[in-house]
Amino acid sequence: MGSSLSSQSENEGPKAIPPGPWNPLTILGISKSPSERLTDMSYHYGPVFSFRMIGAPLTVVLNNHRVIEEALIGNADAFPTRVTSPLRHQWGTRGRIFYSHGEDQVAIRQFVYHGLKVFQEGVLFVKVSEEARHLCDAFGKDDSPIEPTHLLTLASGNIMSILNFGKRYDYNDQNIIQLMESFDYLHLALDPTNPVHQFPWLYETFWYRKLKQSQEFVRDFIQDEIKEHRSHFDPDNPKDFIDLYLKRITKDDDLFLVERAWYTIKDVFSSSSNPTAAGLQWMIALICQHQDMQQKILEEVEAVIGLEKLPAFEDLHKMPFTHAFMKEILRYRTVVPFGTREVVRDVTINGYHIPKGSRVYLNYWAAERDPDLWHNPDQFMPERFLSSDGKTVLKHKHHIPLGIGHRDCMGQTMALMEMFLFGTNLLQKYHLKFSPDEPPPSLRGICGTVVVAEQFKLIATKRN
Ligand code: HEM
């Protein structure tokens, strides 16, 4: 940790606010990613630290499993909702999955769970398998090196497009390309250390024009889809999330309204497509990086599924190494590095006073590499999730890459299914390796609200 950091209140007794740097600008910087910077600071200040920009509320960062659990489980009522985005006042937050709380949150989560259940019990498996086929075709188009991160983003975007809009796009269709580019930009730009969170007026300045344009593009895209759906809506035959939303609108309910539909749809889309795309990117990058592990996964594929049969999601439970590999991806490159919460009452965490009105960052990135809980946390080691005979997948209570508490991830099964089916379908057909003509990727990742892999090139060689 740099010597410029000095503690404000480390020894001020149990009711002191958490310690932190006297100069809050140290949370900014370009040499390291936001996840690395905040994690480095936790090594210096401990599991709970804070900073305050002039004119902005106190921000507290929680950095290990114990304090995150103390907040989200032990004091859940103090942290009901996320820190809202700069568009809060312009477009409102009611109806948003991310920002609703109390009864609204219960109703919206129920609605989303219902939609996901219908989809998961119905067409999800078929649609992911079909998309995996399209992805395999794109990987094997010719023998030249391919850049997979873009394709994986589009494939994951297509699953969400099928779920929400009822259709998939070709990988060269500008509609899905522009939609995913806009979501990518929003996820990259809105990392929690972006000054716009502290000073929302920045949003109206020149520097945030692209952010605004991306938000407006996404809004208009989804609103056009809703308009289209309304023109031939059949309540007896809902085909996707938009139809389910339209069906949910009733005269006596003031939460589900046509004009709010795009909010909910946008949250379902963006909470899923980008984290899942990042999970897929890391999976392919790590498969290329660790050829010995690729071989082990292939051996499980051959033993349990074979190279011809369509992989089924249930196969995962007979493939412990593959399962452990996927768990380790979500630990090693914690795809959603942070959660955020607004603090609505005074609360004590780890003995420190956190006043009402503060903001809290849940540093999942740091929690997943806490050296007290993870042996060699910076190494990629799927075997940490395996029993010593390699046959049983271990659950670690402190493994929380999908969050905990009443705002945890709603798409855990879906995320796992996409990673498993895309990964196994690809490995049935191809041996994957980094292109020897390009420098190997750093695998540090690019951190926004999601940690994505840097672009890289691979060679997909057909099996047999
Ligand atoms: C690898 C893929 C994924 C990862 C790593 C991931 C991770 C997370 C995490 C860490 C949170 C909680 C953040 C917080 O504490 O504030 C979250 C929330 C959420 N996730 Fe996921 N997610 C993934 C895929 C999905 C998918 C496929 C869906 C499907 C719809 C989904 C839907 C959601 C929703 C709706 C929330 C917000 C819940 C709420 O605020 O009530 N996620 N996700």
| Distance, first to last CA | 52 Å
Protein structure class: alpha+beta
Kindly report the name of the CATH homologous superfamily of the largest domain. Cytochrome P450
CATH class type of the largest domain: Mainly Alpha
SSE arrangement, N to C: HEEHHHHHHHHHHHHEEEEHHEEEE
Question: How many H/I helical runs?
Answer: 15
Q: Could you tell me the CATH topology label of the largest domain.
A: Cytochrome p450
Largest sheet: 4 strands, mixed
Per the principal axes of the C-alpha atoms, what is the gross shape?
Answer: globular
In total, the number of domains comes to: 2
Hetero ligands: protoporphyrin IX containing FE
* Rg calculated over all Cα atoms: 22 Å
- The stretches of 5 or more residues where confidence is low (pLDDT under 50) are 1-12
CATH architecture of the largest domain: Orthogonal Bundle
Give the percentage of residues in beta strands.
5-15%
Write the layout of secondary structure elements.
Blueprint lengths: L33 H12 L2 E4 L7 E4 L2 H10 L13 H4 L10 H20 L2 H16 L8 H18 L8 H16 L5 H4 L10 H23 L9 H8 L12 H29 L1 H14 L15 H13 L5 E5 L4 E3 L2 E3 L4 E5 H4 L44 H18 E5 L11 E2 L3 E2 L5 E5 L2
Parallel strand pairs: 2-6
Antiparallel strand pairs: 1-2, 3-6, 4-5, 7-10, 8-9
The chain binds protoporphyrin IX containing FE.
Protoporphyrin IX containing FE binds next to helix 4, helix 11 and helix 15.
